[in-house]
């Protein structure tokens, strides 16, 4: 049972009508008493928990070296998600508020055992918080901005927003987006649907990508099988959604902003199942052994999908068979695991996940497909 309470002078900022926001200070040694870091991972049912990236040891070391110095000025504060159990008591008298903020005392309940969960979560500044927990300057005053929100959705939403200046790893943002239900900035909103689809591909039983997609929450035990980066798949899907010639574009209703997600998912399952069946020796291998699983292969085959799947009804019972017949046209010309690519005169393992190589391989595959299609006609 919690019995300890930390009291700090604070300002309550009059900003959001239902989410209280407080600005206060903690001593460096108190940060670890108050807040934990919500590491991104998944529970046994596969549900995403947490949102923070792993510790960057070199970054933490550099901050710690500065904090351990003399005459430290550390204006870089932390942002915390506080529990609803915090209490704010405004200062007496009419001068305690100016309409924008109110001065008073914030009471934060603390755990009564060292191993007990902390009441708050670090939303921004986890590397700084780790350094603060280790500094010799234990009484260094640290600025804290704390908002009251116990639900992970609100915390993740704020985490994504406050980290737009110093960008988060793309794959971390990709995995978090499906878990955020609030209105997002346009740039992030455009990436949410592709991320949702990648999540489905990685978990659905009928998906050829099941268990093959590597995400920030992928455990060490799962990494041996997770050979495809989620960024490559997400970008391939986003390209098809945004291009008027993309296979997914017809399923966007531009008048009301809705998308036929179920059909798009079915197209992905049909096409990539056909890819797996066409290139069984290259499927499921690490990118170092198969360029099909590499970013350059995923992106290039994603562009070929736009041409192949335009004439195939994904709901047809013969859809996978039809897609396999189309891919058979290019199969003899592919060098995913050995040899040199014809015409390109490039060894299979020299193709890289960069714009020039993606464009080169995409154009080659499309050219061969069109040529062989014409011959078959």
UniProtKB/TrEMBL annotation:
Among InterPro entries, the record links this protein to:
DGQHR-contain_dom, DNA_S_mod_DndB
Question: One Pfam match, by short name?
Answer: DndB
Instruction: Look up the domain of life of the source.
Output: Bacteria
What NCBIfam families does this protein map onto? DGQHR, DpdB
Q: What is this protein called?
A: DGQHR domain protein
């Amino acid at each position: 049972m919690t019995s300890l309470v930390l009291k700090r002078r604070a300002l309550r900022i009059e900003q959001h009508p239902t989410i209280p926001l407080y600005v206060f200070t903690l001593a460096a040694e108190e940060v670890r008493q108050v807040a934990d870091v919500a590491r991104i991972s998944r529970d046994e049912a596969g549900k995403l928990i947490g949102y923070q990236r792993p510790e960057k040891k070199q970054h933490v070391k550099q901050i710690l070296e500065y904090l351990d110095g003399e005459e430290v000025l550390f204006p870089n504060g932390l942002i915390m998600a506080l529990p609803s159990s915090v209490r704010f008591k405004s200062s007496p008298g009419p001068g305690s508020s100016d309409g924008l903020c109110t001065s008073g005392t914030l009471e934060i309940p603390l755990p009564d055992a060292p191993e007990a969960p902390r009441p708050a979560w670090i939303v921004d500044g986890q590397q700084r918080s780790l350094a603060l927990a280790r500094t010799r300057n234990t009484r260094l005053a640290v600025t804290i901005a704390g908002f009251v929100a116990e639900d992970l959705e609100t915390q993740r939403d704020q985490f994504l927003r406050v980290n737009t200046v110093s960008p988060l790893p793309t794959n971390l943002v990709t995995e978090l987006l499906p878990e955020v239900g609030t209105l997002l900035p346009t740039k992030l909103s455009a990436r949410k649907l592709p991320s949702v689809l990648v999540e489905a591909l990685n978990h659905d039983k009928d998906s050829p990508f099941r268990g093959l997609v590597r995400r920030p929450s992928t455990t060490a035990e799962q990494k041996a099988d997770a050979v495809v980066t989620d960024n490559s798949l997400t970008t391939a899907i986003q390209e098809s959604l945004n291009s008027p010639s993309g296979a997914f574009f017809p399923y966007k209703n531009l008048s009301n902003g809705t998308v036929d997600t179920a059909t798009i998912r079915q197209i992905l399952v049909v096409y990539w199942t056909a890819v797996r069946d066409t290139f069984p020796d290259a499927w499921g291998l690490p990118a170092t052994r198969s360029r099909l699983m590499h970013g350059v292969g995923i992106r290039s085959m994603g562009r070929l999908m736009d041409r192949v799947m335009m004439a195939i009804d994904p709901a047809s019972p013969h859809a996978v068979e039809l897609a396999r017949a189309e891919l058979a046209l290019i199969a003899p010309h592919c060098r995913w695991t050995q040899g040199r690519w014809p015409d390109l005169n490039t060894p299979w393992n020299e193709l890289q996940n960069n714009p020039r190589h993606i464009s080169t391989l995409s154009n080659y595959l499309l050219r061969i497909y069109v040529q062989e299609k014409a011959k078959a006609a």
